[in-house]
Specification:
By secondary structure, the chain is mostly beta strands. The protein has strands at 2-6, 9-12, 17-24, 32-38, 45-50, 56-58, 66-70, 77-81, 90-97, 110-111, 115-120. Strands 2, 4, 5, 6, 9, 10 and 11 form a seven-stranded mixed beta sheet that branches. It has a four-stranded antiparallel beta sheet with strand order 1-3-8-7, with no helix packed on it. A hairpin with a 6-residue loop joins β7 (66-70) and β8. It is globular, with a radius of gyration of 13 Å. The termini are far apart.
Length: 121
Amino acid sequence: VQLQAYGGGLVQAGGSLRLSCAASGRTFSSYTMGWFRQAPGKERELVAVITSDGSTNYLDSVKGRFTISRDNAKNPVYLQMNSLKPEDTAVYYCAVGPTENWPRPDRLDFWGQGTLVTVSS
């Protein structure tokens, strides 16, 4: 089973990026999926999460700017990031796990390799 996160890059403040996380090897339609991020020198934090029935939750600082979505038929989870700020700069990781194990990173079964988002001022 592999998760592959992609879509990161360098963008100016105010710009947008769309992250994707594709899964191979099995389906995750009944699992909760989400995105964490980790900035240099900081702890990993949960950015957004989406359950199998589409319920979402967001980090306060990204509410109104980021949107998480999923396509159970195709497996991937997406993170649309708008109005990006320099403080959004981090490595973003997708993760998958049973709903009851969120938001504990140590209890999540599958992780993508991370994709770097850099927002310049």
